């Protein structure tokens, strides 16, 4: 039996091919169909789970070893997940032990890469290695010196300023779990900051978001990040003054 589709829904059906957003799902009376209602509740549960997920430091550490870089295990000033959600300011700063840990590695480098749980450790656990497999060879081939890779628990984006400054890196690149959406609980974000130092605010950074297999693929994300890093070094800046003029980057 053919399902009747409201006339106002029909033109939107073709857009479903390009997005996982909930469009053209139809309705039953004044509500949405049961299947879509249950899918929405499941997505909401996945988003909540992602917020409370934990960084799989053991597995990530093992996977990172093939990059042949020292690995630092750092922590913000947050003591637990509840405090993380209630006190964003504490997630932006390293605790004292972590600050001391950096002192032994402050030899200067071009790029400091940080892997931070953020609001979805699930995204970090699932997508970080795939992205770095595509990105790090580009950086190394371009002659850029990497600082030790940092694994950071209970961190926010700005914690990269403390780490980059502590490592005396020219540029910080933080890979962090983004706030889960109802169609993407596994989205990874990349934030880069030229000349990182404590006290910087968001206009000093560039962001590449929605990095995941069903969003911006690892290869495309790596090329976009690499382009921005090169431009940041050429112009000695990042943030609102650094525009992404690379255009659409193909899989190549």
UniProtKB/TrEMBL annotation:
Amino-acid positions noted as binding adenosylcob(III)alamin in the UniProt annotation, renumbered to this chain: 157, 178, 207
Gene Ontology cellular-component terms listed: ethanolamine ammonia-lyase complex; ethanolamine degradation polyhedral organelle
Pathway participation: Amine and polyamine degradation; ethanolamine degradation
The UniProt record lists the keyword Lyase: yes
Known partners and oligomeric status: The basic unit is a heterodimer which dimerizes to form tetramers. The heterotetramers trimerize; 6 large subunits form a core ring with 6 small subunits projecting outwards.
Cofactor: adenosylcob(III)alamin
Cofactor: how bound: Binds between the large and small subunits.
Keyword Lyase (UniProt): yes
Gene Ontology terms for molecular function: cobalamin binding; ethanolamine ammonia-lyase activity
Protein role: Catalyzes the deamination of various vicinal amino-alcohols to oxo compounds. Allows this organism to utilize ethanolamine as the sole source of nitrogen and carbon in the presence of external vitamin B12.
EC number: 4.3.1.7
Protein name in UniProt: Ethanolamine ammonia-lyase small subunit
BP GO annotations: amino acid metabolic process; ethanolamine catabolic process
UniProt record similarity statement: Belongs to the EutC family.
Reaction catalysed by this enzyme: ethanolamine = acetaldehyde + NH4(+)
Compartments where located: Bacterial microcompartment
Record's keyword terms, sorted: Bacterial microcompartment, Cobalamin, Cobalt, Lyase
Superkingdom of the organism of origin: Bacteria
Signal sequence bounds: none
Record-linked HAMAP family: EutC (MF_00601)
């Amino acid at each position: 039996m053919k399902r009747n589709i409201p006339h106002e829904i029909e033109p939107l059906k073709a857009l479903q091919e390009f997005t996982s957003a909930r469009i053209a799902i139809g309705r039953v009376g004044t509500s949405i169909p049961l299947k879509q209602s249950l899918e929405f509740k499941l997505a909401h549960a996945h988003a909540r789970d992602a917020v409370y997920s934990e960084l799989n430091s053991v597995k990530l550490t093992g996977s990172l070893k093939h990059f042949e870089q020292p690995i630092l295990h750092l922590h913000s000033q947050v003591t637990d997940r509840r405090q993380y959600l209630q006190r964003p300011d504490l997630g932006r700063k390293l605790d004292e032990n972590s600050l001391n840990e950096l002192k032994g590695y402050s030899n200067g480098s071009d790029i400091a890469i940080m892997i931070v749980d953020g609001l979805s450790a699930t995204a970090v656990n699932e997508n970080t290695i795939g992205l770095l497999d595509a990105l790090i060879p580009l950086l190394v081939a371009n002659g850029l010196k990497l600082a030790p890779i940092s694994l950071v628990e209970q961190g926010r984006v700005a914690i990269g300023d403390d780490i980059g400054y502590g490592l005396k890196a020219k540029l910080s690149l933080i890979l962090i779990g983004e706030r889960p959406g109802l169609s993407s609980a596994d989205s990874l974000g990349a934030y880069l900051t030229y000349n990182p130092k404590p006290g910087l605010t968001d206009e000093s950074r560039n962001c590449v978001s929605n990095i995941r297999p069903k969003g911006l693929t690892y290869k495309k994300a790596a090329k976009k990040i690499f382009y921005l890093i090169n431009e940041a070094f050429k112009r000695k800046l990042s943030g609102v003054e650094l525009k992404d003029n690379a255009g659409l980057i193909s899989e190549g």
